[in-house]
Amino acid sequence: MKRRVVITGIGLITPGGSSPEDVWQTLLHGQSVAQSITSFDATPYSTSQAGIIEESEPFQPFSRRLLKRMDRFCCLAMAAAHRAIEDSGIEFQHREAAGVYIGNMYGGWGVTDPSLRNLLTQGYREVSPYVASAWFPTAPQGQISIHWGLKGQSKTIIADTASSALAIGYAARAIEEGRADVMLAGGAEAPITPYTYTFCSNSGRLNPAGYRVFDPEGRGFLVGEGAVLLVLEELEAARRRQAHVYAEIAGWATGYLPRAENLWSDEGKKLASLMTQALRQAELEPDEIGYLGLDAQGVQAADLAEAQAVERVFPGEQPLATSCKPTLTHLLGAGAAAEIATALLSMQHDLIPPISAHPVSAAHMRLVSEEARPAQVRNALIHARGADGVQSAMVLRRMAE
Predict the structure, then answer these.
(1) DSSP alpha helices (H): ranges in 177-232?
(2) Domain 5-240 and domain 252-397 have a common topology
(3) Which keywords belong to this entry (predicted)?
């Protein structure tokens, strides 16, 4: 019999706030937090708007010496891990059974970008000695493990915008199978550098008109920096220490749709099959789901495929659906973790935040827009997709008081 996995801590460092309370208030207002990039000239790019974290308070628990050695995406991950551990109240008594799974897309270009420029213009002596380790996508995994002395399961997952969904799913699986007792899991991203922003802009996934989901003119999203880490525990261990439990990870499935099949033209069949698998694992029927956390890419074809997947799984009355991304911006490798955290906060507050403060509608979907909707959510289904074909669906179950 597999062990049950619950979430006992949330760490959020986002453009919309650096605590669950602040982020929740931002989500309730539904206004995009995107602002003009000022750290470099972004006018040549497809858009100069992004989600930016301006406060330095989240980094205060760490020494300047340590922060200097890390890229910004790693600093964000460390700060989110600190908040999640603090929120959970966990003490790592058996560090061999505690680990970290974390996802990102781009790694650390905040250090690498200027160092490469210095190398070309001023010579090798002007290159930061920390570049070799700071840029690496696995840096947060290593720094978190070192800082908190975690000696158990440890992985970095890169799966485009589905990265953190897979990190959380695989972390839960490690606990289910007895390979871990406690896991930190989520994602981190810091794409607001000239080099990384070039990737984003040239991909054609940024929308000059803003983040417009389920819109016939939808051409993409707005990116943001941030990190979201969750504390996952085995249920009985959490109960023994009387921890607050946000929800149980009741089901999870992931799969791959080869790009050769034209990613968004399968009419949502692959995503629908994964949603069905996750429901089956959770031993739930579709009509028992009260909340849908959407991928909401903001690309017309992608949003249509998502709507078709939802219609396949929920042919009758559909659950209320929302997404935090139009408000917080798309945190890329941390975006799916932000959606999961939003679902957890909705369960806490018996409210579903709007996908936008402006009217949004989609055929065959019950989108929450303009204002929050009261709802006692017992079960939530959150899905994520990456542009290279990785897809994921997760079911969260609210625990009885």
Answers:
(1) 194-202
(2) yes
(3) Acyltransferase, Transferase
29 membership: H or E segment, kind and range = helix 20-29
Q: What is the pTM of this model?
A: 0.96
Where are the domains positioned within the chain?
A: 5-240, 252-397
* Radius of gyration of the chain, Cα coordinates, nearest whole angstrom: 20
CATH topology of domain 5-240: Peroxisomal Thiolase; Chain A, domain 1 (3.40.47)
> Which range (49-63, 316-330, 332-346) has the least confidence?
49-63
Q: How far apart, in whole angstroms, are the C-alpha atoms of residue 54 and residue 57?
A: 9
- Per-residue pLDDT at 51 exceeds 90: yes
**167-222 pLDDT per residue, tens:** 999 999 999 999 999 999 999 999 999 999 998 999 888 988 889 899 888 888 99
CATH 3.40.47.10 holds for 252-397: yes
State how far the Cα of 361 lies from the Cα of 74, in Å rounded to an integer.
Answer: 37
The C-alpha atoms of residue 168 and residue 275 are separated, in whole angstroms, by 16
